[in-house]
Amino acid sequence: MTETPEEMQVEDRPPPLWRRVSVVWLVPLLAVVVSLAVAWQSLSERGVLVTISFEETAGIVAGKTAVKFRDVDVGLVEDLAFSADLSSVLVSARIRKEIAPFLDDDASFWIARPRVSPRGISELDTIVSGVYIEGSWDGTPEAAIVDFVGLETAPEVRPNSAGTSVRLSAPDAGSLAAGAPILFRGIEVGQIERVSLAETGASVIVDAFVAAPHDQRLTTATRFWNLSGFSVSLDTSGVTLDVDSLASLVEGGLGFDIVYSGGGPIPEEQIFQIFTDERAARESVFNQRLQQELRLSIEFDDQIQGLQAGDPVQFRGLRVGEVESLTITALEEADGSPADVRLLTNIVINPGRLGLPGQAGREAALDYIEAAVAGGLRARVGVTSMLTGALVVELAEMPEAAPAAFLRDARPHPQLPHVAS
């Protein structure tokens, strides 16, 4: 009897896991990985969020307004919000990551808008592209910050410009205004940054900037004067109209120069006085009673009418001093005859204007004048204007003059010889 084999049990075995994974499934997985990588890269390169406070933000739009540095986009405004007390608007802007380390205490921001001034129209590109936030900072990375107070107006001088800032004082502002030029011998070398009232209210303070390398001419011997408007003078040569520049005629301005030699570096607290004109600025050096000033006297024996205190003393056409006082002195003759009446003129001069070094003392100055008198230096009175009759005491070099002595021990001051006026 033949045995029938048992029926075989056939069971389905699941395929291996690697055979159950379809290649199609890799597509969404790969998409997720790529998305995460892009998101991570975008997040890591997103930049730094800074907050800038402005009093008003007309024209600023979140997601559209750019932040620029030297006309290059370096960020974008993301959000606008009010401060806690509603006194200002907080602008949140995302700044590129490589720029963020330079945003330190020296950084500043302002809203660039079209500006109209007597010198023309600036920021015209904002009419087409819209307003934007402009920033300025130096190239040295320091301790970065993220909260800033924006400037309400664009600065007249860009921050971190090469040059020197100076502070000046005047009785009143007159026609001086921010943006007015500062001229050196007719060439614009700087600008007025702002004009404000002093704390006491007795004067105005003018903050100005002189660009490099012209700021090297700023010393303790520098004087500033007002260039606003024009001046007209009338003398024997005719009528002279003096206008320093068209810009200074329209919006005012300042001029400056070194009025004497020997000036030193200006101290940090130096405040320059603004004189009414160039002449007053140059004459100011003689109104200051400096230690190196030298007083001399002259006895004129001829009749001189019109000479008065304050009239200039000139040497080789350059003002070196001024008349300090005039008195009448009577000299009695030995035989008792009537006294000889003379005009005693006391003058004060600055030895530095004669070419002596600033540190030259009194004795060195007297030695110099004594040698000059031996060579023909004489004092005389001349006329500076035929129309006004203004007089001047001239220290004239006259080698052909008769010999005369310099009375070094005379009283009240050493006495210069003179010639006929």
Q: How would you describe what is shown here?
A:
- The chain is mainly β.
- The protein folds into three domains: 48-149, no CATH class; 163-287, no CATH class; 294-416, no CATH class.
- It has helices at residues 17-20, 26-44, 125-129, 246-251, 278-287, 362-374, and strands at residues 48-54, 66-69, 72-82, 89-95, 108-112, 115-117, 120-122, 132-136, 147-149, 163-170, 181-184, 187-197, 204-211, 222-226, 231-235, 238-242, 254-258, 271-275, 294-300, 312-315, 318-331, 340-349, 377-383, 391-397, 415-416.
- The strands form five sheets. Strands 5-8-2-3-4-1-9 form a seven-stranded mixed beta sheet, with no helix packed on it. A seven-stranded mixed barrel has the order 10-13-12-11-17-14-18. Strands 23-24-20-21-22-19-25 form a seven-stranded mixed beta sheet, with helices on one face.
- The longest helix has 19 residues, at 26-44.
- The chain is rod-shaped and about 190 Å long.
- It starts with 16 loop residues before the first helix and ends in a 5-residue tail after the last strand.
Biggest sheet layout = 7 strands, mixed
What proportion of the residues form beta strands (DSSP E)? Answer: 35-45%
Low-confidence stretches: none
Number of helices: 6
Radius of gyration: 40 Å
Mean pLDDT over the residues: 79
Number of domains: 3
Q: What structural class results from the helix and strand content?
A: mainly beta
